[in-house]
Amino acid sequence: MSDGLQYNSLESLETLRKSALAEFEAIGTEADAENFRIKYLGKKGILSELKKSLGTMAPDQRAVFGAAVNSLSKDVEGKFKETPWQNKNAGSAADSGFDPTLPGFPFSSGSLHPLMKIRNEIRDIFITMGFSIAYGPEVESDYYNFQALNMPPFHPARDMQDTFYISDKTVLRTHTSPVQIRVMEKQKPPIRAIMPGRVYRNEEISARSYCLFHQIEGLYVDENVSFSDLKGTLLAFSRSFFDEKTHIKIRPSYFPFTEPSVEVDVECFLCKGKGCGICKYSGWLEILGAGMVHPNVFKYCGIDPEKYTGFAFGMGIERIALLKYGIDDIRLFYENDARFLKQF
Ligand code: PHE
Fold it and tell me: 47 with 4: CB under 8 angstroms?
């Protein structure tokens, strides 16, 4: 039986009014106020139950008793509205424990990954030299990754690159050089393009190598492009990217798709050439491979090697980022530790 039904006379309503007012006066906390509200004014509170009970009364009794219930209900509601707790949302900011005068929480903004920053810097230097940008797929066919780059099946140079095979004829590209082929197939000389992207090699993971990394490929094809154009371009790049005084070293090397081929070293940033763990105590860091485009590669792309010459280069972005930021472990780029990433 609900509480309301025990009040069935005008006297009992007076008793109820008194006890309600007494309880109202005793309200001291928000919780007291809420209990009061539920007990008297809630949907199943005493006053609602009283109103519901009117329906079962004889009409003449209902007229008198109903008027008394209504007046009591109005009084209690009116009183309750006076309390500062009657509506939580209407309470002052201080009551809710929220202090609008406190300084706000700082928003930390995101930033570019260090590898993307380096890639953009390198890209922008070549863009100012008149190079455009091209992209190719990371899942590449054997033809583009090897064959058209003058590495037919069983060519020993295929072993230089620890390839992840997807199937017999499909690989994860081991370098960005296949994009050279894709560009030369589509475009006639003059061609000046850089081709950034991710490459994959099944190498043992260590501080110096990872199973995936990033390269930027460069290609310049036109009539009368010479080896000195290659040297000049790489020197201009190094002086713009590192600094005016950075030394570079050009060493003869071998790639099947360039002839002659070279490797370019930059002075080790960490030890300034004295020798340290990063540069394997040589003072130099290899940053790129390059050379003059092999005539066979031109033939695969339908470009006349008698008429055109060109140079190509490919550099590792991680290596350059290590240099530039003085980082001693390549794996940090792939761990996504915010404490590391926030520093750039
Ligand atoms: N593709 C070569 C590598 O990954 C780099 C390279 C690019 C060399 C272009 C010569 C010309 O090692």
Answer: yes
Find the length of the chain.
344
Is the CB of 319 inside a 6 Å radius of any atom of ligand 1?
no
Cα-to-centroid distance, 111 and ligand 1 (Å): 30
177 lines ligand 1 (CB under 6 A): yes
pTM of the model: 0.69
Highest mean pLDDT among 151-155, 227-231, 278-282: 227-231
Cα–Cα dist 60/54, whole Å: 11
Q: Counting atoms of ligand 1 from 1, which one is nearest the CA of 288?
A: 5
Q: How far apart are the first and last CA of the chain?
A: 71
Helix (H) / strand (E) containing 249: strand 248-255
Ligand 1 geometric centre to CA of 43 (Å)? 79
Between 299 and 1, residue with greater pLDDT: 299
Q: How far is the CA of 310 from the centre of ligand 1 (A)?
A: 14
Would you list the domain boundaries of the chain? 3-86, 114-341
DSSP 101: T
For residue 304 the two structure tokens come to: 């006349």
Reply yes or no on domain 114-341 having CATH 1.10.3720.10.
Answer: no
H or E element: which one contains 11?
helix 10-25
pLDDT per residue over 47-75, tens digit each?
A: 988 888 888 888 888 888 888 899 999 98
